[in-house]
Amino acid sequence: MGGFMVHLGSRGLFVPSDPQLREGALAAHPWFGGGAASPQWGETRWGTLPSPMSASTSPALPTPPTSLIGREREVALVEQILNWPAVSLLTLTGPGGVGKTRLALEAARVLAPRFPGGVLFVPLAPLERAEQVMPAVARALGLQPSARDVVEVVGEALAERQLLLVLDNFEHVQDAAPDLGRLLALAQGSTLLVTSRERLRLYGEHEFPVPPLGLPRPDDPVGDAVRLFLDRARAARPGLTLDEGEGQLIEDICRGLDGLPLALELAAARVRVLGLGALRDRLRDRLSLLTGGARDLPQRQQTLRAAIDWSFALLDEAERRLLARLGVFVGGFTLEAAGAVCRGEEEDVLGGLASLVDKSLVQGEARGPDTRYRLLETVREYALEQLRRGGEEEAVHAAHLKFFRERLRALRRHIEGHDQPDLLTTAGSVAELEAEWPNLLAALAHAQETRDEAALADLALHLAPLASSHLDPTAAARLRGALSAVPATSAAAGWWWYVLAFLAYRGGHLAQGQACAARCVEVFGALGDEQGLAYGLQIRAYATLPTDPAGAAADLARSLAWARPHGDSLVGAMCLSMQAMLALSGGKRDVARGLLREAIALTEEVSNHIGRGWAELILASVELTDGNSQGAQALLLNVVRVGAALHTTDLQVGGLGGVAALLVSLGRPAQALRHWAASGALAAARNYDPTLVQSLFAPWLAPLLSRGHEPELARALQEGQAADPEALMATLLAAGLPEERPAPTPGRDPAAFTLTPREREVLSLLSQGLSNKQIAARLGTGVYTVTDQVKAVLGKLGVNNRAAATRYALEHGLS
After folding, report:
1. 228-259: b or e for each residue (b if 16 or more CB lie within 10 Å)?
2. Taking the model in full, what pTM does it have?
3. Per-residue pLDDT tens for 323-341?
4. Which one is the CATH code of 72-204: 3.90.930.60, 3.40.50.300, 3.30.300.30, 3.40.50.2000?
5. Can you tell me the distance from the alpha carbon of 479 to that of 107, in angstroms, rounded to the nearest whole number?
6. Across the strands, what pairs with 44?
7. Domain formed by 750-811, architecture
8. Which residues, including other chains, have CB under 8 Å from residue 84's CB and lie 6 or more apart?
9. How do residues 508-530 score in pLDDT, each as one tens digit?
């Protein structure tokens, strides 16, 4: 048999003369077959081989076996970015399992007609070394081997071609990035689309972070994550539907998995053996649960753990320690918190955090001037496993508890008005408290597990005064567990009874609130703790006010007797405001006015915006009764302003209810009912009992509500129930009280006949406060196009600003 010998690296290859035998010999050699054993291009010692692939052809794009769900917006954005003349390298980044490869393939399929030189897809996952990347590209192009520099050879081949080169899974061969920079300089007509868990850090690189699939939201009640889960689950359970019961379970599963496509697909496969309820409950151990992916997928995609293992293996030792420690945070964290909790003797938290963000293991989200970070729940569970294995679990949890005890103390001072914070500063503290609520619960859980009585008492002391406005009532069951970790007669137990009393009161469970408050008073009375007793008497008065006004008055007087000399403006102002409520119920408006003015003066001493808002809300009802509509309006708009800024439910509900009463006094019945219905809908959505705040203004609305069957008023009630209360408050603050509009002609909705479907969509987004750029991004169109559409909407509606258009949308149910 004739032939010749060539030397490829350290291996020789005999090439037969017979064409069929030659093809088999070439295919068997790892240099041509690819994989880990492929030598560098420059290792060819002499001679060249005929190319196994013509340079004018390229492999077809892989065809995924399942349909792509969602990603329309992302595909459109990738297409748009690659259409910019300045973009020659776009890197799709994101955590493992987020769907970077699927997005890249779909984008390449859509973009193929725009690249005369074709589309070339090169998978890099099988490679082990960075120096194998350019030879793999060369092989895919069908180039002949050469002793010359492979980058130059590929660059020359692509110099005259407008080609889209897709490099998939680049994260483990990052050292090859400079070669890509050189290639782009040589082949300026070509474009690179790269998928990687980490950006390449090349000059001129554009990054596109691939987000998880969208979860249900108002403008998309189903959500792409649910659509993907349902589509894949039906392969195992064909009869699965989104009925009321199963739909909620599916949404819970998708939220628990952060909308991560790989996790959703693995979970969907489990419905063959698990019910949806059992699947949701087992997500606490998702890394063990979500296995068994398709056998024809890469091994790293067959289990959720393997997907994260792939990323974890690429970290250095310091990054691994930092990621493990970050697992203690729940719901996100700040750089300050990470520095306080995760710093070791030699750790650079800022640098390490930046690297983990770059590697897509930590998500960063800008919020105003600051950035908040979080781990996807799948990554967080993996990090906690590593923390346990490293033996640092107790120390890091203790540091987490210490930090949030101190942070809670500072937040309480700001929210109560100490240090004279302005409304914006207070709003920032309230927003931080709400953002850190999951971390506070985690700190509380650790204090319970370790039975740290001092920490539990401290958490309760600073959490208790905030319970009325800022804690989720559904957390009561978790908070009640703190009682079992402290002595029944301790101050810590007294404060936890106080918290539980306030939560019960907020939810309208007055009997339960009275019982918890009684235990609070009993504990603090036995201890001789005057501060705790004053707080307990205050909340007991709130809970007993509807059934025992005299008893409530006595409790308020005792609480106020402590607050005044001790300078506690929070308790003092609230007691005075509640005493004013009692005076009003007895028809003593002048007495009530005097008490409220004293309450307002107390709140001004320390800039207590919440206490002032409560006093002004009650004072507005006094002014309204006295016929002072102008004074009532000024007070109510300030209540709405404070409630909206601080996201305080009672002030928001009361402010909208008060505006409704004011509109009645001004002869605007339909507008009044819209605001009243919106007030009630907001209370229901927040699980808040509005009886107290709405009782201030209910007499004004009663006559109208009795006529609620009339067509115009019935329509107003329906519009109010469907309205966005936040948008309604924003309109009040931007444009003042709404003018009453004549009822539309029966059977004819003006907007339906004057606006096109796209203009109605633009109006809906505009009424949500989105800018023209944000609307364009949501609709996947150009900013100039949206600008023209907004102008057309304003013209057709006969208004000259966005606030008026928002008001129109709210009034006609178009928001």
Report:
1. bbbbbbeeeeeebeeeeebbebbbbbbbbbbb
2. 0.68
3. 999 999 998 999 999 999 9
4. 3.40.50.300
5. 49
6. 8
7. Orthogonal Bundle (1.10)
8. none
9. 888 999 999 999 999 999 999 99
